Each structure stands twice: as structure tokens, then as C-alpha cells.
Amino acid sequence: MRDVNHVVRRPSWKLGLVLVVAVLAVTQSISTVALASTAAPAPRYVTIQFGRSIEGSYTNPGCVPVPGILRLDTVVADLSSMHLPAIGTVNVDRASTTGEDCTNGDIYADWSDLQALQSEYGFDVVSEGLNHNDITGDTPPPSMGTGSQYAESCGSLPDFTAEGFDNAWGEFAYPDDVHTPAIQKNPVSTCFAYGRVYSYTPIVNKRSTLKAPWFEDADNVLGGECNVQGMACYSLTTTAGKHYTSPAGWASILRNETGNEWDDLQFYQLVTGSSDQSTSFSWDCTSSNWKLHWTSHTEMYCLNDFMTIIAAIKPGTVDASPAAVATAWGRSPTA
Fold this sequence. Notes:
Elements: H1 13-38, E1 45-50, E2 54-59, E3 64-65, H2 72-81, E4 87-90, H3 92-95, E5 101-103, E6 106-108, H4 111-121, E7 124-127, H5 148-152, H6 157-162, E8 171-173, H7 181-191, E9 194-199, E10 205-206, E11 215-220, H8 247-255, E12 261-267, E13 269-271, E14 274-276, E15 282-284, E16 294-295, E17 300-302, H9 303-311, E18 318-319, H10 322-328
Parallel strand pairs: 1-4, 1-12, 1-18, 4-7, 8-9, 9-11, 11-12, 13-17
Antiparallel strand pairs: 2-3, 2-6, 5-6, 10-12, 14-15, 15-16
Helix pairs in contact: 2-4, 8-9
């Protein structure tokens, strides 16, 4: 008698075809996942920038240092210890003085200072022009001659190169944020990768939207009056109604930064503790609530809030100069 328990039934050819197709589909899916997993994510960038490379603030007359205002070299050294190189914006006339220049109570780093910071901490600079002039002015100083817009911007680059700074072409930092699209198109974008414009709210530059005429946003982090109504610090006489900016907003941008994005953070001077030395040089950074922090000048910002922002930089973010970002993103001036 035939033992039905050992009958071997040949599978239908249709079922076999289905199995082959399924195996091929799974194999293709696995290969796709493997390729996706090995693709390196696009880098994200941050620049920590100090406007005008102010070495410190000083009282007038006499240019006597104000306690509690950190010197530029101190801040640069501290950032370097965290593997965060910084850059400064520089105008040629103030850097070229014999000894540090003291103007309007601020003392500016000279070439010797800047070269020492470069040598020891990798500090880099970008150009604010020859004379910190309004580049849009219809009547430039006679000394600038014809082609003054080119001279003020592109004409500053040989001075930087001569002093050992080869990356100043990465950004033209328009003095006092005065610019026009026409000037940015020609001459600035012909010799600089980007033209700096200020953003007073947190914003990030995206590679996909950074296009001609090549303006880039720099987050201008400012101090000012405190943010609690009814307090005396809410209405200061020196800050024209401008209030201290929240460190949380800038920190949020950094925490959420993704590939092919660049956050250019600009500060000026950092202060610590509190001071009531004078109307011009006073601040209070001591409260645990940032809304009670205030500074008598918008270009002063509390060190503790600065550190809140810096601490939000995600691991793996590339701290880079504008020139390094431009190189990575394939942006080079046409002249």
C-alpha cells in the first residue's frame, strides 16, 4: 500500500516565482538600507565671531581698563581650551596704529595682538574694510579717490594678506550693517565669499538658499535693558529701548541645527558679575533669571548667557571661519 505520509508534492511554479521575486525584493531593500547607512551626513557649521575685535573697554579720559569686562585675548583663549576657535572682524586703520587704538572708550586689537592670537589659538579675521566707513556714502573722503567702494572693500584684502591673514576674503563685515544689494553684487561679491548682514532674531544660513548676491546672516547677540517690567533696569537711558536678548533663542537654533546649515554668531564684549562704575559702563549678570540681566551698552553681553549659547552647540558641529564654510560649499569669489 502506498504510504501517503511520504508523498513529496512539487511546489507550483507560480509559488516558486513569487518566492524568487520576494527574495530579490528583500535583497534589494537590504542593499538600499546598507548604502543609506554608510552615507556620511552633511556637516553643520558654526562661527563664533567678535565684532570689531575690541580688546577691551576703557573709561575716558585716559583709557583706563574697566573691571569685569573680559579682554578679547581672554575669551579667545578660553574658547580655544574648548576646541572652539574664534574669529574677529577687523578694519585696517584701527589695526594699523602704533600700539592699541583707543577710540570712544573701546580699545582695538592691533596687528601684533591679532597675530599673537592667531599663532597661539588659531584666531582668524575677516574684513570690515579700510576705514570703517559707510560704503554706501555718495561723498566718500577724498583720500579714498575714485572707485571708493572697491577700495574700501576689496582694496582692504592686500593689507590682511600682508599681515598673515589669508582668509579675510570669507566675509565682508559691512560697517554698522550699512549695505545695498547693488554694492554687494559689485564689487563686494567679486572678492568676498559673503557679505555680512545682521539678524536680530535667531536664524541659520542654509546652503540651499544661500545664493547671489551672497548675503549671509550673522546672529547679532546684544545686551540692553532687562526684560521684567516695573524694574529700574527695564528703562535705561543708554540703550534706546533695546532689551537684552534671550540666550534660549540662540541656543535653540544651535540645538536644532542640521547638515548643510551654518550659524554665524556675533558677539562684541562679554561682562561678568555686576558693575555700577558709570552710566556708560554698568551691568548686572548675577541673577539666575536671564530676564533680569541687563547691560548699559547693547554691545555688552553676560558671560554666563554666552556660555549657555555655546553649550548648545551639538557635538560634531564644525567650528569654522566663513572662508572654510565657503570652501566647503563651493563658493569662491569671481575675482
